[in-house]
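On clarity, I found the account of how folds are encoded harder to follow than it need be. For illustration, here is how one protein appears when written out as sequence plus structure tokens:

:::
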Amino acid sequence: MHGRPRDPALDAAIRKAALDIVTEQGYKRLTMEGVAARSRVSKQALYRRYASKGELLLAALDAFAEEVLPAPDTGSLREDLLFLVRAAFAFHRSSNSAFSQAVAAEAAQGPAFARQALEKVINPRRDIFRAVFARARERGELLCSDDDLLIDLVYGPLWYALLFNFDRLTDAYAESLTDAVLAAARQA
């Protein structure tokens, strides 16, 4: 091994600085220099960890999502789904959807970033839904065999609201969306 091991506290400070800047000022104002200054690390240390602001954003979002979007296991498909949808809505309300809009904007710039976003942030969240559906299937609560369709039924309206109708991300809408997905989940 070469050099000192990375300091997890420093990594956390860098990710937090990036998220704070995006939340406060928007993705356009996120710069590696700004993150370095706010997290009190050198630009060299920052670039050793992240090659671009997009890569940094993905790492920050992944770490943050792991904290605030845990995998529920209530024993009920409806309660698990409602928990996940409400948590996703609350997460996006807390950031004024700046994170997701930033990911969408960066992904529109090129397929390489879009693939990274899928691998590092989106697919791990989709895997949480798959685990919920697998447990529900074992309990006999789920007839639909197409997990991706069910997950898309959640994320389609979520992304539409994030990009075009942010005010729709309410707990009442989370409940309506959950019930719509449940209706589809109970179809063979």
